[in-house]
Write a structure and sequence with these properties.
The protein has 296 residues and is an alpha/beta fold. It has one domain: 3-Layer(aba) Sandwich (Rossmann fold). Helix content is 36%, strand content 20%. The chain contains ten helices and eight strands. An eight-stranded mixed β-sheet has the order 1-2-4-3-5-6-7-8, sandwiched between helices. The N and C termini lie far apart (49 Å).
């Protein structure tokens, strides 16, 4: 079971590369402005190629809701350049979209991947206005290993706190076809040594006061990922977190991402609706250290 999901994750990266080449062949005549290789981290352990993001700016006047999208590739392969179609798909719908790169295994291990995602979110929170984005409407999403990372950064406050932010900085999380439990992570010891898996599993961080979740997977995803998505949604609901899910018809672990932006794609339409509907809602009042709510 773990092996089938592992193979699917790697195959998905290859398929995404083909989708990117297809987009290059057809051209981009959608009014979206692309700003490539924006550095979000300048620490001493920065990776010059990976600690960057590509920003897809919608046509027209903002402020636009902001979506950070984290690519898949089993935490050890993949690149933001392979997912240009995702950036264009959501930017065309009026969402400022950042395709986020991050350091990969075996060069780094958990928690360095998710720390990079938190750094990218902090950069977007700080710089959104410069690119017509709404810093108070920040969302995070990703597929496969990116689905895991987008869920983890939105559930475990550790990583955003390292960047001076609270979980309330995230208005919503949209993990796609991700592994959320310890058993699934065990198939990737280069990324998750045994002693890190309990901490790395998003399911272990479910509790109250988390941002809204929209959990998605394909009806032909590996069984453990379909079950994991349902379990995560149920646990969030039990904890009182606003959560919903979508099993996308006729989509597997590869096509759920390569078909983003295709005509009448159910997932694309659902994600756009979730982002825009959630962004239009009044955010919950932040709490002070004493537990009192701040006044608007």
């Amino acid at each position: 079971m773990r092996s089938s999901w592992k193979h699917a994750a790697i195959a998905g990266t290859v398929a995404a590369a083909l989708a990117a080449f297809a987009l290059d062949a057809t051209g981009d005549d959608d009014g979206v402005t692309v700003k490539k290789d924006l550095s979000y981290y300048d620490g001493k352990d920065r990776d010059e190629k990976k600690n960057n993001l590509d920003l897809y700016v919608p046509k027209g006047d903002g402020p636009f809701p902001v979506l950070a999208w984290v690519h898949g590739g089993a935490w050890k392969m993949g690149d933001k350049a392979l997912f240009r179609h995702v950036g264009h798909a959501f930017a065309k719908e009026g969402i400022l979209t950042a395709i986020v790169g991050y350091r990969l295994s075996p060069g780094v291990k958990h928690p360095e991947h998710v720390r990079d995602v938190a750094r990218a979110l902090a950069w977007l929170k700080k710089h959104a206005k410069e690119h017509q984005g709404d810093q108070d409407a920040l969302f995070v999403s990703g597929q496969s290993s990116g689905g895991h990372l987008s869920a983890l950064v939105a559930l475990d406050p550790t990583y955003l706190k390292e960047q001076g932010l609270e979980l309330s900085a995230i208005r919503g999380a949209i993990p796609m076809s991700g592994p959320f439990g310890q058993l699934a992570l065990a198939a990737f010891p280069d990324a998750f040594p045994a002693e890190t898996r309990e901490d790395a599993a998003p399911l272990n961080h479910v509790g109250k006061d988390k941002p809204p979740f929209f959990v998605t997977w394909g009806d032909d995803d590996p069984p453990n990922l379909r079950i994991g998505g349902k379990v995560l949604t149920a646990k969030l609901e039990e904890a009182g977190v606003k959560a919903k899910s979508l099993e996308v018809k006729d989509r597997g672990h590869i096509t759920i991402v390569t078909k983003i932006g295709s005509e009448k794609d159910e997932l694309t339409e659902a994600v756009v609706k979730f982002v825009k509907d959630t962004a239009a809602e009044k955010p919950k009042a932040e709490k002070t250290e004493t537990g009192e709510k701040k006044k608007d």
